[in-house]
Amino acid sequence: MSYRFPVFYSHFFESHDTGVGHPENAGRLVAVVDYLQNAQNVALKASEQLLPKELLKELPKEDSAAVLQMPPSPEKQADQSAEKGAEKWAEKLIWIEPSNREVLADIHRVHEAAYVAALKAFAAKGGGYLDADTVISPDSYEVALLAVAAWLDGVDWVLSDVSSDSRSNSQAASGQTAFVLVRPPGHHAERSSAMGFCLLSNAAISAHYALTQVGIQRVAILDWDVHHGNGTQALIADQPDIAYCSFHQSPAYPGTGLVTETGAHHNVLNLPLPPGSTIDDYQRLWAARALPFLAEFGADLLIVSAGYDANQADPLAAMSLYPEDYAWFTEQCLQLNAPVLFGLEGGYDYQTLAESVAATIRSAICHALAH
Ligand SMILES: [Zn+2]
Asked: Domain Histone deacetylase, which positions (predicted)?
């Protein structure tokens, strides 16, 4: 089986209806899916243009040579190299529908059972506002459960040797990365409350679940969403075997994430950055603080809370990143030499969100193919 990069996604994630004008809406996922599928179509078109060997055999020798030697126009050449570039990564994408696994026991590891039950009951009654920003619709509870299932499926995938090529062959990184394309996001959700568009703490639930898997003793979470993941931090802060590292704008919502918040076991590293920060600022902090922290922790699995609202175009924050910067960020994660699971958090400008998710996936695929 050749290398494939999975995107865990379901149309059902669009059924969490937050109402007209809400920034965290189904259009976010539609934009990303459209963008990725278009890249796949370009890749398919490029591979269709290759002349089948059987056809070449049937052509008279001189015709065959003529076909092969005919130089393409410069314009076509540019088209072809763009398509070839697309082919290299986009044709490796596979879409995986999340399983209907039982997730309540995993959720209850980090959330109060009474909160989860109340969420279910509130949705069943039609939903409404849970806090000033967080609104749910009748389907939202089930959507949130399926989002957790997708994250846990992602953990299984990246930790699995079976679902990938053997790690000992030339496609060594195969199966060790995946992207979980879900909503609602999770990193603001607290133990017993929804918050900031988030219902369930997908990343913390996944980290706790991963620790139940054979051979997984330490899990790190890197949160590059522009907002501090107050919920994730709270749900892992007393766990010596889970580390949390966050890059976030400060001051900004939700106001947590001070450098003085270090966790019960020095397992939390907060890296606040002022508004307007660029990739240079992120790179400096990565080299000076995040990389040493993550390298010393030595995780068996890295979970990335991949929000894309630090993009310059994002309407909810004031940072100055561009989609290509997430390719750099992705490569740094992969160089930590652990399986890496990327899961969507924020990102509210459709175009740069889609481009950034694609940059993340492209970078992960190129890394896998090169190693
Ligand atoms: Zn955010």
From this structure: 94-362
